[in-house]
């Protein structure tokens, strides 16, 4: 297990930081450990934090008025997770986040982030580019939902989250693809036959 | 019709800019006029530009392998538009953009944007926050696709794009909602009955 400074060096490997800046960031981030199936964020609570995933796997999910779960996304190693719509506006969560495996996260609050951005302007570029990538992945997901068959969406899922299938439950994947677990089984059988 | 400097003042009204900075931005943006039904961006071409919509309405759409169109989004006054996944990576467009009405746009290339960001650090924050809003709107759209009925998605569309319905064709809206134009008619009739 790396210490926080080593993790911070990994996260920000593409930008040049002085030692002072590195330590400011490392002292700002707070390590959070989650066991499998723990809740990180609960619907209707104020969203103050975003999290960097050092290890483990989490998922963000929405519960509709019939009680059905819809998985918006999974977060694996080196991803960031929050209910960003609420995080940006300091509003209340419309989604839940839970751990699917034991996880180690680094927590960064909105206030802490603003403080870091004021003191280390290079981080503006980092967080802008992070948002650009997140935006692109959402664009891909919207187009998949609109234009791809369930089987094609499943293949895209496997490509986006390699090695995740062993760790997550079938209904997590089905609720991400917008299909039933029965359809998921059929798709896997079809693909296995080649 | 405002001149470019006046439009730039409007776009960046929330940040403090010196007169020199304002003029640098105004001299960088290039005005583009489009007639209704003109193509702004064609699939498979390299995406170098993003556009600010001063007036008019455009749509970004994807054509699947069966030739069916899927509208990713509409852009109305005060929105920005591009194939952002390709724009960020200087890659090729996977979507088309066309004007639905006569439109006046301000064009900003990736290179020009990087140049502005180097010279006016305050713009980093502006473009980060713009990405945050765009990201949030995509998050909402993904959740709508997963969790809402076609009728609920239609109501959300009307709220997101007020006053747009008169300007766009029914098949544009249907291809945004992921339904047929017949379903769209049925939904409108149901809602009209109250």
From TrEMBL, chains A, B:
Recorded superkingdom: Bacteria
Cyclic nucleotide-binding domain boundaries: 32-119
Entry-linked InterPro entries: cNMP-bd_dom, cNMP-bd_dom_sf, RmlC-like_jellyroll
Pfam families: cNMP_binding
Name of the protein described by the UniProt record: Crp/Fnr family transcriptional regulator
């Amino acid at each position: 297990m790396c210490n926080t400074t080593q993790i911070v060096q990994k996260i920000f490997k593409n930008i040049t930081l002085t030692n002072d800046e590195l330590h400011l960031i490392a002292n700002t981030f707070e390590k959070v450990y989650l066991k499998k199936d723990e809740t990180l964020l609960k619907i209707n609570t104020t969203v103050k934090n975003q999290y960097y995933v050092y290890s483990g796997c989490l998922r963000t999910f929405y519960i509709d008025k019939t009680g059905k779960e819809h998985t918006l996304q999974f977060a694996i190693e080196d991803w960031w997770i929050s209910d960003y719509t609420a995080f940006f506006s300091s509003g209340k969560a419309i989604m839940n986040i839970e751990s699917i495996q034991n996880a180690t996260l680094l927590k960064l609050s909105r206030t802490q982030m603003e403080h870091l951005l004021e003191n280390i302007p290079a981080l503006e570029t980092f967080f802008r580019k992070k948002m650009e990538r997140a935006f692109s992945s959402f664009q891909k997901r919207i187009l998949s939902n609109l234009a791809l068959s369930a089987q094609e969406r499943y293949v895209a899922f496997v490509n986006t989250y390699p090695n995740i299938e062993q760790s997550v439950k079938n209904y997590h994947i089905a609720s991400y693809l917008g299909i039933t677990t029965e359809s998921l089984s059929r798709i896997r059988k079809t693909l296995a036959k080649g």
